[in-house]
Amino acid sequence: xxxxxxxxxxxxxxxxxxxxxxxxxxxxxxxxxxxxxxxxxxxxxxxxxxxxxxxxxxxxxxxxxxxxxxxxxxxxxxxxxxxxxxxxxxxxxx
Length: 94
What we know:
Blueprint: H1 3-20, H2 32-51, H3 58-93
Helix pairs in contact: 1-2, 2-3
């Protein structure tokens, strides 16, 4: 196994642990809290698929890479939106 493959497996294991541990970036409220978990885990899974795609077609590899980065981008956007909403609620409460 290559270094990238080992790293992708470690990353996938870390995201599964992140899913199991109750401490999250976004608390596990229905839908919103689960969405960040889903996007982070799917990004790690897509990374594993990309790294272990032995003799994969170039188009499949590019698609996996694109999907992985879209999941990461969506997770970051959702986390930032939740942080902004929480900040505005705290600001209005003062």
